């Protein structure tokens, strides 16, 4: 902890001013003062808490469109096999049989997904400016509650 003492200005009512910096809570040793004629100024230099934002993001919801489309029909000329192992077309014998099957195709429309917009609900922070205090416990001891700049002024 740093300490600086200044002699009083000529003709003034101030006997001494001491200034310094405390990096944490504790006792600072100062040059002896009359505690009945002195006062303390404390300037806090720290804070507590966190600056993180707390909030919620809503889920996206939506629906998909169903598949739709049509399939072309497949066609064929049907035939059967006779008892003698000969193909029979439509019940006739000694006929040339041609079988034609058209290709079958399915054309489906693309699916679409429609989602609603999302947003973040209001959040909070947990940042608190620390209140640092100090007092003279005796003529040479300044007690501070946290990191601060301090000043002890003694009157003549």
Report on this model:
- This protein is mainly beta and 156 residues long.
- The protein folds into two domains: 4-55 and 128-155; 57-119, no CATH class.
- The chain has strands at residues 4-6, 14-22, 26-29, 38-44, 47-54, 62-64, 69-71, 80-81, 87-88, 106-108, 113-115, 124-129, 134-138, 141-144, 148-155.
- The protein has a four-stranded antiparallel β-sheet, with no helix packed on it.
- The protein is rod-shaped and about 135 Å long.
- The chain starts with a strand and ends with a strand.
What is the compact description of this entry?
With 156 residues, the protein is an all-beta fold.
Characteristic key phrases:
single chain; 156 residues; mainly beta; 45% strand
SSE diagram, text form:
Elements: E1 4-6, E2 14-22, E3 26-29, E4 38-44, E5 47-54, E6 62-64, E7 69-71, E8 80-81, E9 87-88, E10 106-108, E11 113-115, E12 124-129, E13 134-138, E14 141-144, E15 148-155
Antiparallel strand pairs: 1-2, 2-15, 3-14, 4-15, 5-12, 6-11, 7-10, 8-9, 13-14
> Which strand-content bin applies to the residues?
35-45%
Helix content: under 10%
Distance between the termini: 26 Å
* Poorly predicted runs of 5 or more residues: none
Q: Radius of gyration from the CA trace? A: 47 Å
Q: Would you count the extended β strands for me?
A: 15
Largest sheet: 4 strands, antiparallel
């Amino acid at each position: 902890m740093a300490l600086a003492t200044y002699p009083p200005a000529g003709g003034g009512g101030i006997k001494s001013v001491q200034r310094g910096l405390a990096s944490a809570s504790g006792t600072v040793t100062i040059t002896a003062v009359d505690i009945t004629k002195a006062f303390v100024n404390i300037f806090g230099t720290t804070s507590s808490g966190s600056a993180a934002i707390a909030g919620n993001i809503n889920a996206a919801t939506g629906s998909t469109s169903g598949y739709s489309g049509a399939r072309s029909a497949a066609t064929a000329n049907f035939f059967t096999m006779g008892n003698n192992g000969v193909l029979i077309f439509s019940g006739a014998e000694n006929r040339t049989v041609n079988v034609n099957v058209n290709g079958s195709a399915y054309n489906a429309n693309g699916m679409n997904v429609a989602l609603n917009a999302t947003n973040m609900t209001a959040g909070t922070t947990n940042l608190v400016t620390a209140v640092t205090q100090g007092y003279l416990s005796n003529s040479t001891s300044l007690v501070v509650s946290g990191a601060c700049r301090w000043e002890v002024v003694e009157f003549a």
